[in-house]
Amino acid sequence: MADRPRGMGRGLSAILSSSVPVADGGESHPELRDMYFGNYKRVVLISQSQDASIIDRGRAAARRLGLEFEHRHVGLEPFSDAVTSAVSVALSKRVA
Questions:
Q1: Which of 1, 13, 30, 39 has the fewest CB atoms in 10 Å of its CB?
Q2: pTM of the entire structure?
Q3: Where are the domains of the chain?
Q4: Tens digits of per-residue pLDDT, 17-76?
Q5: Rounded to whole angstroms, how far apart are CA atoms 45 and 50?
Q6: What CA–CA distance (Å, rounded) separates 42 from 54?
């Protein structure tokens, strides 16, 4: 389970800096970084856009945690396909 990809949203940096005592790179509580993230190998950013600032923040968060960084761009196609399919199903049930 430790190797399972974890996604990050726009708020990861805010979450890390406000609620995780190791957000400063583990300088104030280095023992907690391993306790929280010791079983993780990498941070995987799954994004729908190619926004460089988001990718840079993900990379910086991974660096602060001492983890590898991986970016997987999935685009908007899967979301668009899912919405189109859901609307089609809903409309077909209304007609029937």
A1: 1
A2: 0.56
A3: 12-95
A4: 555 555 555 566 777 778 888 888 998 888 888 899 989 988 998 888 889 999 998 888
A5: 11
A6: 17
